[in-house]
Structures are given as C-alpha cells and as structure tokens.
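pasting for the record
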Amino acid sequence: MPTAPPPSRDVALETRFFWERFKKPIISVAIVVLLAGTAFTGYRFYSDRRAAAASAALASASSAQSYEQVIAQYPNSPAAGDAYILLAEAQRKEGKFAEANKTLETFMAKYPKHELMSTAKMAMAANLDSMGKTDEALAMYQKIASDYTNTYAAPLAMLLQVYILKAKNRNDEARRITESILTQYRTSFWANEAMQQLRLLRPITTSTPPPEAAKASTVPPMLANPPAPAPAPQAPPAPNQPKKP
C-alpha cells in the first residue's frame, strides 16, 4: 500500500515565523547582554585607572599624613592596604606604638587575605614589646611561628622569642627554640644568628681533672712539698802538725 509523502517544509518561512513570534524577547536579551558587557568593560577600565592612580599616589607618599590621604582617597584598593602598613611603620618611628597597633588592626579587619598579613602581625608584636608588654608579644610571636611555618616570618618570630626569653632569664626555653630553628630552618637567613645565640646560651661545663692530678690533690700539703734535706755533717779539721827543726 503506497505511503503518503511527508509534508514539505519551508525553512525560510519557519524562520520568519519564529522571528516574528519571539522578536521582542530576543531583542530584549541582546540589549541586556550588550549593556552588561559595556558596563563590565567600563568598570574594568575605571578600576584599572583608579588602581593606577592609587599606586602612583602611594609611590609619592613619604609621611604619615600622605599615607592617610591615600587611604582616604582610594579606600579598599590594593594600594590603600599597603598604605596602612606604611602608616603603622611611620607611627612606630614616632614612638606612637599604640596608634600603630590600631592602624594594623584596621588593616587586618579590611584586608584579611592580604599578602602582608604576617608582616602586620610581626609589627604588632614588636610594638607590644616596645610598650613593655613582653608576655603579649611573646604569645603573638609564638602564634605567628605556628601559623606561618612556610614563610620568612616563622624563623624570625622564633628568634625574637629567644631575645625576650633571655631577658626573662628563661635560658632553657630560649635554648630549645634556637635548636628548633637550626633543625627546621637551617637554610634560612636567621640560622646563623640562631647558632650564635645557642653558643651564648650553652652552660659552661668544668673539665674533669686527669687521674694523676686527682691523686696529687689528695696528698697532704706537708707531703706534697717535703722539706729540703739537711746538709751532711763535715769532718772536723785535722790538728796542726809541729814544725820540724
């Protein structure tokens, strides 16, 4: 039994029908995509220009006031994060240790994943030490050494612990830390300083005298240095002989 031929399809007609039916949604989506791309390109251009301007401003800054201006003009930029570190250092040089630590705390709150986080914590611990808060500084150095084991900060934080412990006459603890530095960071820049500190911290041991010296020391003084022997008695002189005539 013959089958009926399939109905013919006019591709151009179907395409025109699809376009007429969905023309408005397609145009709307295209406009949204175009605007989004334009906005993203503009944002990137603006961000790059702003980041470049912030970097230039930071490069020309050299005082606490200029660092504060960079932070105020370019907040949340990478250059502003670096400006916080430099501002804290400028405050430290002026002896404003408490203010420097407040600046560093603000930096750590705004930039928790900044690459200079360990540097900021080291600076905070140094400020605490300068303010006489050695116990807090020691605890902070210990935490830095444990949190940043694969960075330069770890052996340096351990070495600074040694100085604090020596000042507290806790030489045994200081000696153990120097030994740990030489074991874990023997190729680091701080290994030589750790070795020198270890030499200074080693206890002075007295050498054991040899057996001969020990025996000699047990001899009574009067026998150790006997008196000189008395001289032998001399024979009496012969009597004078009479002269012959």
